[in-house]
């Protein structure tokens, strides 16, 4: 029990330390990202988020979320969203398929003037690299969320030899170490306790908070959702959906 309690504290301390690093070292980038989100809202653009595998969890955390921007839509790639595909290894294989991102984007509602957040811890696979690169070709602004450390410790799996960070208007570095495991144990042969989901979600919620405050400072009411589990929340959300329905795709 004592060892387990110590491991839990070590993990939580590690996660807190990473969040503090992101807070301190990515402050300027978070501010810039929040402004880019706010600019897109004011200019009539639409907001999208994409992540493959476990990176999709942070993307989904932004969509249809109480306290979040109603305009954030999930850009889904069949078989690559979360770990619901069987076998789970198929999702990992799809991340390495050239041409898939282009096909998805060309059949998606994204258009010039929109904003796409691409989340990939390693940033090395073909799917996120191509997603960012082709989105920019379409005139879409791209915010990449990745661990920049992977670009110096691994090789790209995209034919261009580049990483996600090389095809973004703005990059947010999650500071996650290569391998995404914070703990080791003498009796455990592999490192364990990943923190990327915790840190990436916190980083992106910081961006959304910045965007909401930025909009308010401009005299624009942020199109935020309220919890459906508080009195009046559903009526509030219905009003937001009616006002911004042409920029919301998860209701269709």
Automatic annotation (TrEMBL):
Positions of the SIS domain: 37-221
> Which Pfam family is an annotated match for this chain, by its short name?
SIS_2
The organism sits in which domain of life? Bacteria
Instruction: Cite the SUPFAM superfamilies for this sequence.
Output: SIS domain
Q: Name the PROSITE patterns for this protein.
A: SIS
The protein's matches in CDD domains, at most eight in alphabetical order, are given as:
SIS_RpiR
What HAMAP family would the database entry show? UPF0309 (MF_01240)
Q: Please state which protein family the record places this protein in.
A: Belongs to the UPF0309 family.
Q: By what name is this protein known?
A: UPF0309 protein ABZZ21_43385
Species of origin reads Streptomyces ossamyceticus
Species lineage: Bacteria, Bacillati, Actinomycetota, Actinomycetes, Kitasatosporales
């Amino acid at each position: 029990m004592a060892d387990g309690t110590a491991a839990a504290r070590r993990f939580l301390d590690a996660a807190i330390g990473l969040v503090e690093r992101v807070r301190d070292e990515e402050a300027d980038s978070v501010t810039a990202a929040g402004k880019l989100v706010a600019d897109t809202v004011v200019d009539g653009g639409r907001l999208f988020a994409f992540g493959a595998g476990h990176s999709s969890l942070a993307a989904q955390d932004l969509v249809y979320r109480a306290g979040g921007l109603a305009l954030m839509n999930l850009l889904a790639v069949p078989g690559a969203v979360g770990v619901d595909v069987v076998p789970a290894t198929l999702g990992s294989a799809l991340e390495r398929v050239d041409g898939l991102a282009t096909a998805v984007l060309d059949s998606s509602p994204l258009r010039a003037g929109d904003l796409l957040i691409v989340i990939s811890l390693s940033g090395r696979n073909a799917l996120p690299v191509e997603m960012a690169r082709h989105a920019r070709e379409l005139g879409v602004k791209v915010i990449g969320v990745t661990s920049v450390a992977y670009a110096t410790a691994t090789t790209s799996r995209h034919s261009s030899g580049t990483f996600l960070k090389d095809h973004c208007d703005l990059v947010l570095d999650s500071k996650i170490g290569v391998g995404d495991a914070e703990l080791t144990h003498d009796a455990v042969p592999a490192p364990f306790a990943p923190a990327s989901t915790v840190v990436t979600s916190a980083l992106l919620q910081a961006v959304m908070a910045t965007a909401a405050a930025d909009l308010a400072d401009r005299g624009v009411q942020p199109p935020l959702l309220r919890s459906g589990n508080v009195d009046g929340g559903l009526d509030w959300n219905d009003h937001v959906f009616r006002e911004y329905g042409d920029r919301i795709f998860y209701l269709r």
